[in-house]
Structures are given as C-alpha cells and as structure tokens.
Amino acid sequence: MKAIMIGILSAFFFAFTFVLNAAMEMNGGSWYWSASLRYFFMIPLLLIIVLYRKSLRALMIELKKAPGKWMLWSTIGFGLFYAPICFAAAYGPGWLIAATWQITIISGSLLAPLFYEMRHTSQGVIRIKGQIPFRGLLMSLIILVGVFVIQWDHASVVSVKDTFICTLAILIASFAYPLGNRKMMALTNKRLDPYQRVLGMTIASLPFWLLLAFIGLQTAGMPSMSQVYQSGLVALFSGVFATVLFFAATDLVQGNMQKLGAVEATQSFEVLFAMIGEVIILSAPLPSATATVGISLVILGMALHSYVSNLPQKGFKKEKEETV
Q1: Where are the beta strands (DSSP E) in the chain?
Q2: Per-residue pLDDT tens digits for 189-210
Q3: Domain-by-domain residue ranges, the chain?
Q4: Rounded to two decimals, what is the model's pTM?
C-alpha cells in the first residue's frame, strides 16, 4: 500500500508535465526545447540533492562501471520517453495525452519476460524469468478500450492522421519508459537511491538532449523566457519530485513484476490531475461526454489492475528457476 500511495503522489507531480507542455505548445514553443530544457534544469537540481546527501562518488563509480549501458538505457528510458510526449503535445490537449499515456501499463506488462523476479522459497532465494501477468493484463484491456474511446472522440475533432501521429508517439514512449527504468534497476541492483539513479540517467542521456537542443536552435531559434520558466517548473515538479517518487515506489517492489505493474498503474491518476489542471490553469473546456466515458474506463481499468495484481500468485514454472 505504501508503494501505491507514493505512486499516486508521483502521478500528481507528473501531471504538471502534460499541463505545462500544453501551455508551451499554445504559446508557440518548440517541442525540441520543451523536451531538452527539462533535463538541462534537472542536472543542477539533482546535483545539489546528491551532493547534500554525500552520495555523488558512489554514483560516479557506478557510471564508470558500464557507461555504455548507462547511456543506452537512459536514452531509451528518458529520451525516447519524454521527447515523444513533448512531440505529441502538438496534436492534443494534455488530459488526452495523459490518458493515452496509460497504455504504458500494458506495455510494462508485456515487457515482463525480459526480466527476472526474485522469490523466497524453502530452498532459498531463487531467480525466475518474469512472466506476463495475464490477470492484470486482462484488466488493462479496459484501459485500452478507454484510450480507444478517447482517441475516437478526438478524431472527430481533428484529422485521423493527427490522431494516429499522437497515438504512435505516445506508444513509443509507453514502451521506452518502463524498459529503461527496469533495465537501470537491474543494472544498479539497489546500490543507488532514487536521487542518484535519476541524476545518473539524466547525465547519461545528456548527448540526446544536446542533440535535440541543437535541432531546436536551428529550426526555432532560442526559446522564449516563458518557455524557459515553464520548463524549469516541469523539471522541478515532474523531473525531480515525480520521477524520484516513482522510482522510490518501484524500488519498494523491485523483483515482483505483478506489484511493479500495480505501481505503474497508479500513473492513471495523471489523467484526472491533468484534466483538473488544464481547466484551472489554462481555462480549457471540460472533455466531452464521450471522452469522459473513456476517462472513466481508464481509471476503472487502473483500479482493477491494481486489485488483481495484489492477489496471491499461484506458483511458477520450475523449468525457469535459477538459484542465486
């Protein structure tokens, strides 16, 4: 339950991403800058925290052990997650992107066979290859139906092409984020705290953000002060608060793919928080009746996914066991 509550709190701060990205898009800001500026701001913010906790040296040691893997999985987990999210802001309101983003719950479940789970038995601690949690995945299909309803309603207002581009971008992000996060958890194996891991991944993905900033400079010029300020807020609320809280929640259930899926499911609350934020901050209209039905299905699917993910597991396949 503690991990679930932390996950919901992280969803609140993550929602600022969708609201502020929508605001920057409305003001004509380039998505290249919206994406890269967040991570530029995150480095000094996180560096202050890690230095205060006197844990920078341990992070540097871990980075030097496998710099190639750090760069690869950090670029996937941060770069191929956030750049598509910013790109999608040009094709729909923040609440719609937040709702579609919940596909990541299904994406995360499908990635389970790429990882190992640790279980305690009478024979000691054993490592087994992760299996797709079909009970949770079945509930996740309700989320998928909700996303379809929302996008169908959106397609009635904009072109089908724009809806497809928006969905494709978020689909890429939905696989990249859990893949990069889980690979980094496996690589560091609890040797780093969430602050260290987020800072390390931000540093390791820096070449990607420098490339995006260069493209943004060539295509759109320097960002406006408004975009710089709003990107700084995204870096603080979403990049630091939300990411650290989410990583802390996933660390609490590391090694249990079903509970990990439940924590990832808490991010469905981003839809509600983003919708409320856009209405209050941007004076955006409320979603249509059809979109509201879709949002309700997304939230219902999240609740059911969390419930079945916490049901007792029914054993595992012996041929996949490996004593550690």
Answers
A1: 116-121, 124-129, 321-323
A2: 889 998 999 999 999 999 999 9
A3: 2-323
A4: 0.81
